[in-house]
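Hey, can you fold this?
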Amino acid sequence: MVKKYVVSTLMLVSMFALQLSANPVDSVTMTSTGYGAKDTITFWGGGHSGLTVYAGLFMFNKTGSTGTGNLIDNGTIGGFCMDLSEYLASGPKAYEVLDVSAGPVPTTFLGGGMGQAKADYLSELWGRYFDSSWMAGGTYTAAQNAQAEAFQAAIWEIIYEDMPTTSAGWDVTIDGTAGDKGFRAANLDYTLANSWLGSLTGNYQGANLTALSYCGSQDVLTAIPEPATVAFLSIGLLLAVSRGYKTMNG
């Protein structure tokens, strides 16, 4: 009975792997609906030199998804820009769901995906300092706008700068990376951004983030809602428990 169960399990895993290879792209279809809290910032990085733009929370309307994109409910989504080299897409677009460590795409100014260490810092930053009031709608206070802008700058700093020896080495006003890479910014509350960055440890259990990527436009960093995360993990736990029970009972 044990051998039969092992063979059946291997067949199930093989079928699952084939299904994944046949449908490799998990997606989220959404349309930009404007901004939440935001303010103007001037930055250097991603091929731009002294470009002034809005920095803050992007707002989207999600209307469809496939695969792991289904973990995010349809409706309003808030996210931050990951990609300095491209501009925000207009109209409904199907964004590919990526692991944060693999983004942003293109990787021209990083030499590859950002890696897991930076992804962990972003998770901690979001888990400790993201404020849902930045996407509440209506009119935002000057403080909320400044906070959302500082949060965006902190995200860019983590993604585009070389990893410092300690988190205290991050500074959004200084480009500490040699060559045409790196990031720096002006016209923002840099004290707040740097205080958040300097407090990070890299091993804090933060938010469950995902990267949404669309070729030709900015990639977006957003969080998977906690109930969906718990449900996803629970499915895995139930499968593991079921496997153990069947093995013990032949």
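Oh, and this one too while you're at it.
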Amino acid sequence: MSVRKKMALVLAAVALTTGLATGVGPATAAPASKQSAVAECGVRSDGKLWCGNRVGARGYQHRSYASGIRGQLNTSFSWFACWGYGDTHAGGNDIWYWTQLDNGQWGNVPAVDVYTPTDPWGGLRMC
């Protein structure tokens, strides 16, 4: 392999790992860490909570791990329409957030997978 091809591969790898090759603008770029995701978390003028989340977080039919899985969040920053009480989860509370998952289905995501500083997040309506 030529030096030029090796250099191109190295640059492509660096771009992919730093997110430069995604073509995502600053408004939708993924937060660099959970701490920065918490800092960006808030209810916007559309009434939705926009917040960082765990990539791969599952959305459930009901607010229970025993209910059917509707899909997941494949991105690290999402919106949530409202919150409600459900089963206790690893986050130490029973708050779940309702959102449209990346496959278009609607589901309940346990708060442990949403990077809020407190649960439920103030200003977001209960559902």
